[in-house]
């Protein structure tokens, strides 16, 4: 556990669950396991997703260090999201959780 203030301790598992909770984050993480993600493809794959909520979830996953954002400077210019090293460390955790469900 990590110490936040003088007497308050934070559970790492709780922090991870908070970081990966959100409207589309679990789905995005699972799709990233299969390979790089492109925004427009995600709009088609994630049923019910809209541009704003998807963009917000991707941005938060990048900020939290679970995804990497790569700008591909070919014509047409596009952006891909893939699992970062930190994100790859969570693969065994997710596989273990899948066996429980």
UniProtKB/TrEMBL annotation:
<feature type="domain" description="HTH hxlR-type">
    <location>
        <begin position="11"/>
        <end position="101"/>
    </location>
</feature>
<dbReference type="InterPro" id="IPR002577">
    <property type="entry name" value="HTH_HxlR"/>
</dbReference>
<protein>
    <submittedName>
        <fullName>Winged helix-turn-helix transcriptional regulator</fullName>
    </submittedName>
</protein>
<dbReference type="Pfam" id="PF01638">
    <property type="entry name" value="HxlR"/>
</dbReference>
<keyword id="KW-0804">Transcription</keyword>
<keyword id="KW-0805">Transcription regulation</keyword>
<keyword id="KW-0238">DNA-binding</keyword>
<dbReference type="InterPro" id="IPR036390">
    <property type="entry name" value="WH_DNA-bd_sf"/>
</dbReference>
<dbReference type="InterPro" id="IPR036388">
    <property type="entry name" value="WH-like_DNA-bd_sf"/>
</dbReference>
């Amino acid at each position: 556990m990590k110490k936040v203030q003088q007497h308050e301790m934070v559970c790492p598992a709780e922090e991870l669950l908070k970081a990966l909770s959100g409207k589309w984050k679990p789905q995005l993480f699972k799709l990233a396991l299969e390979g790089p993600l492109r925004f427009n493809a995600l709009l088609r794959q994630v049923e019910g997703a809209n541009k704003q909520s998807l963009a917000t979830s991707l941005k938060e996953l990048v900020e939290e260090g679970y995804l990497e954002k790569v700008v591909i400077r070919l014509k047409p210019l596009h952006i891909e999201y893939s699992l970062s090293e930190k994100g790859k460390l969570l693969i065994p955790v997710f596989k273990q959780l899948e066996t429980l469900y």
